[in-house]
Write a structure and sequence with these properties.
elongated, 11 helices, Rossmann fold, binds S-adenosylmethionine, two-stranded antiparallel ribbon, 41% helix, 2 domains
Length: 265
């Protein structure tokens, strides 16, 4: 069947079917526009139909095509990592304002934060950790593909890290365990290790903050992603107790939602 007819007759939004066809044919979207009469073989048609079925079940386009753009770079993704979200770019932007000489990204997933920082700050020594060895494999592949040198460590939060860092950043899981707000497709197809963290979503963030407070050489800055007003209140109270002498700021994302806790000692 011809490309133009497949797009017209697909029950998916046009952009989705174009992206899936590009993936199946290994061609750009522009190529599709200039070759509307190209006919798919039965094998490719079967592949396209399979992807359409999964998309209708709620799998994200990024997971289906195996890549996602973040901070202007293309990251490979698979079922072992969270698909990078645009709101996380705020962490990278903030780091670039500070221009640190060393950074640790805790819970690096696809490596999107650590790699984007290193791409833009070549003099910064970047370390990235994750508890998941399969996520670290994806991050390592992305760092090779994008040509940056990052030190990767498999670690439960700071357990295996010993050196001093000027900044610690983290987008750890922060979805409350029984959240009803999370989209079905996200819950079903993204790793739960990357999503959930206790009843209010803040267990891992609290644990990390406690670990940081006990370091003999504390970082000058800590940037932690979270979400919303409720978590803001809990985090402000908790953080001011264990870091009484630090400046605490809450940064908003582009939608005006509280998104990052910034701690400066
Ligand atoms: C929300 S995802 C974020 C991934 C990536 N930083 C991003 O922004 O796309 C959280 C990541 O934290 C990792 N993680 C979960 N528990 C952890 C722990 N105890 N120590 C280190 N990493 C952890 C997960 O494996 C996952 O890759």
């Amino acid at each position: 069947m011809k490309i133009s007819r497949l797009i017209k007759e697909s029950s998916l939004p046009t952009l989705d079917s174009e992206l899936l066809l590009s993936c199946v044919l290994q061609k750009s979207k522009e190529w599709l526009f200039t070759n509307p009469d190209f006919g798919l073989s039965n094998e490719l048609l079967e592949k396209f139909n399979e992807l359409q079925k999964k998309r209708r079940e709620g799998v994200s386009i990024a997971a289906l095509v195996g890549s996602k753009e973040f901070f202007g770079l293309e990251f490979k993704v698979n079922e072992n990592v969270l698909i990078p979200r645009p709101e996380t770019e705020i962490l990278v932007k903030e780091v670039l304002k500070i221009q640190p000489k060393s950074l640790l990204d805790v819970g690096t997933g696809s490596g999107c934060v650590a790699i984007s920082v290193k791409k833009n700050l070549s003099n910064c020594e970047v370390w990235a950790s994750d508890i998941s060895p399969t996520a670290l494999k994806v991050a390592q592949k992305n760092s090779q593909k994008l040509g940056v040198k990052i030190e990767f460590i498999e670690s439960d939060l700071l357990e295996k890290t010993s050196r001093e860092f000027e900044i610690i950043v983290a987008n750890l899981p922060y979805v409350p365990q029984n959240s009803v707000e999370i989209e079905a497709g996200v819950k079903k197809f993204e790793p739960s290790l990357a999503l959930f963290s206790g009843s209010d979503g803040l267990d891992l963030i609290r644990k990390l903050l406690i670990q940081i407070s006990k370091l003999s050489q504390k970082p000058k800055f800590v940037l932690l992603e979270f979400s919303g007003d409720e978590q803001t209140e809990v985090l402000k109270i908790f953080t001011s107790k264990i870091f009484p002498n630090s400046k605490i700021e809450i940064l908003l994302d582009l939608a005006g939602i509280p998104r990052v806790l910034k701690l400066q000692s």
